[in-house]
Write a structure and sequence with these properties.
There is one protein chain. It is built from seven helices and no strands. It has a single domain, classed as 434 Repressor (Amino-terminal Domain) (Orthogonal Bundle), CATH 1.10.260. The N and C termini lie far apart (52 Å). With 97 residues, it is mainly alpha-helical.
Length: 97
């Protein structure tokens, strides 16, 4: 069930399995295993990353929520370029300069 949801949402976004795998930091073969039903269990960390990358909820992926995601998720390239960690305040930025 989760594999069907992953595949459908990934295809809606126009992503390949490799695009999705890179976006969440797992092997492309793992995405294939999910989508083909060879792997049906998923730890919470992976489920959260899948949901975030696909722009949907974990409930949607697990089929405990009937609604489809409304908006498009960011592209894999956009996600890679996003800074991580806390945002700097204006005061901290000016103190560095």
């Amino acid at each position: 069930m989760i594999g069907e949801k992953i595949a459908a949402r990934r295809q809606q976004l126009g992503w390949t399995q490799t695009d999705l795998a890179r976006a969440i930091g797992i092997a492309p073969s793992r995405i294939s295993e999910f989508e083909n039903g060879l792997k049906t269990d998923c730890n919470l960390s992976t489920a959260k990353r899948l949901a975030r990358a696909l722009g949907c909820s974990i409930d949607y992926l697990a089929d405990t929520w009937d609604e489809e995601p409304a908006g498009a998720a960011p592209t894999p390239a956009a996600r890679r370029g996003r800074p991580r960690g806390r945002q700097r305040t204006a005061a901290a930025a000016s103190a560095r300069d």
